[in-house]
């Protein structure tokens, strides 16, 4: 499993963005994107891929997009 966790420090409510690549028992890969206000349940979107390469490319594309919107990698 590969996870990118990013934060955007917007006052008074910081926001988070998470991108996670995972593998299931059926040989498929999924990319979970979750976003929202920190400390609250956010929105989520799950996309399935047939191979790891496509899943990683999609995750990287969404991570870069979040970076352009002001999200920065979480420290620690």
Poorly predicted regions: none
Strand content: 35-45%
Major sheet: arrangement of strands: 4-3-2-1-5
- Domain tally: 1
CATH superfamily: WGR domain
The major β-sheet equals: 5 strands, antiparallel
Q: What share of the residues lie within helices?
A: 10-25%
Which structural class is indicated by helix and strand composition?
Answer: alpha+beta
Instruction: Give the number of DSSP strands.
Output: 5
CATH-level-2 architecture: Single Sheet
**Radius of gyration (Å):** 13 Å
Per DSSP, the total helix count is 1
Short characterization:
With 76 residues, the protein is an alpha+beta fold. 22% of the residues lie in helices and 45% in strands.
What does this 3D model show about the protein?
InterPro entries: WGR_dom_sf, WGR_domain, YehF/YfeS-like_WGR. This is WGR domain-containing protein. With 76 residues, the protein is an alpha+beta fold. The protein has one domain: q64v53_bacfr protein fold, CATH 2.20.140.10. The chain has 1 helix and 5 strands, in the order E-E-E-E-H-E. It has one helix at 52-68, and strands at 2-8, 15-23, 29-37, 43-49, 72-73. It has a 5-stranded antiparallel beta sheet with strand order 4-3-2-1-5, with helices on one face. The radius of gyration is 13 Å and the shape is elongated. The mean pLDDT is 91.
